[in-house]
Amino acid sequence: GAVVSQHPSWVICKSGTSVKIECRSLDFQATTMFWYRQFPKQSLMLMATSNEGSKATYEQGVEKDKFLINHASLTLSTLTVTSAHPEDSSFYICSASKIRDRVSNQPQHFGDGTRLSIL
Amino acid sequence: GENVEQHPSTLSVQEGDSAVIKCTYSDSASNYFPWYKQELGKRPQLIIDIRSNVGEKKDQRIAVTLNKTAKHFSLHITETQPEDSAVYFCAARGSARQLTFGSGTQLTVLP
Predict the structure, then answer these.
(1) Residue A101 has what pLDDT?
(2) Rounded Cα–Cα distance for residues A104 and B101 (Å)
(3) What's chain A's average pLDDT?
(4) What number of other Cβ atoms are within 10 A of residue B17's Cβ?
(5) Which of A12, A94, B35, B107 stands the most exposed, by the fewest C-beta atoms within 10 Å?
(6) Residue range A58-115, pLDDT digits in tens
(7) Could you tell me which of A22, A29, A27 has the C-alpha nearest to residue A81?
């Protein structure tokens, strides 16, 4: 169990385009989802924490208006990169957990990631 | 917030030898410490985790140790095989509820 599906796996588009990435928990209800960005040969950097039914919490330095997050249901969170530019090119990975309101030691399960290339 | 440091950044071992990767964390409230293996272009996969009420955990060739007093934890891989070659990340979950990742270790197992 605990499968996280992320779509699309690869996107190539022109500068100025908005791109939506979906993250779904297939066999469990994910009250919390996390969005990470990973540059080549670097670690995973948390961009935002998404809680179902409430506004996402963004990490310092991450533009809310640039990276729109919607967590409308217990199984789906979306990340929209608005007006993408070449510097937004990266590997974006979501993860899901059952954590909500307390510190917990539940595992965090990752999607396959989306490789975004902006020309 | 939480700060996780990981060493070494690269590690090469001969097939059959052991590999050890070490991490330290800063938040004394951290209570969950997973290790992930990431192959090139793929998602991180959880290989083992340990909770703060346990000092050591083993799963076949993989073991993790935790020293809460010193705030460090380590991954041990014995009898390494070429398919163990990948990037390994440690992580810690503290009072902020999210995972903070180490910088990663590129492990290369030489045949």
Answers:
(1) 46
(2) 17
(3) 89
(4) 13
(5) A12
(6) 999 999 999 999 988 889 999 999 999 999 999 999 999 875 544 456 788 899 999 9
(7) A22
B53 touches chain A (CB under 8 A): no
Whether B39 contacts B23, CB under 8 Å? no
Q: Which range among A5-19, A44-58, B71-85 shows the weakest confidence by mean pLDDT?
A: A44-58
Q: Which residues contact A24 (CB under 8 A, 6 or more apart)?
A: A4, A5, A6, A7, A75, A76
Phi, psi of B13 (to 5 degrees): -135, 155
Q: How far apart are CA A44 and CA B104, in angstroms?
A: 9
Contact criterion met (CB < 8 Å) for A46 and B100:
yes
- Residue B97 distance to chain A (closest CA, Å): 6
Query: Minimal Cα–Cα distance from A43 to chain B, Å?
Result: 5
CB-based contacts of A89-92 (< 8 A; 24+ apart in sequence): A89/A116, A89/A117, A89/A118, A90/A37, A90/A38, A90/A39, A90/A116, A91/A37, A91/A38, A91/A39, A91/A40, A91/A115, A91/A116, A91/B41, A92/A21, A92/A35, A92/A36, A92/A37, A92/A38, A92/A116
Average pLDDT of the segment spanning B38-53: 91
Chain A and chain B share a number of CB contacts under 8 A equal to: 53
Query: How many residues appear in chain B?
Result: 111
Whole-number Å distance between alpha carbons of A111 and A57: 20
Cα–chain center distance at A111: 9
Peptide bond just before B111 cis, omega within 30 deg: no
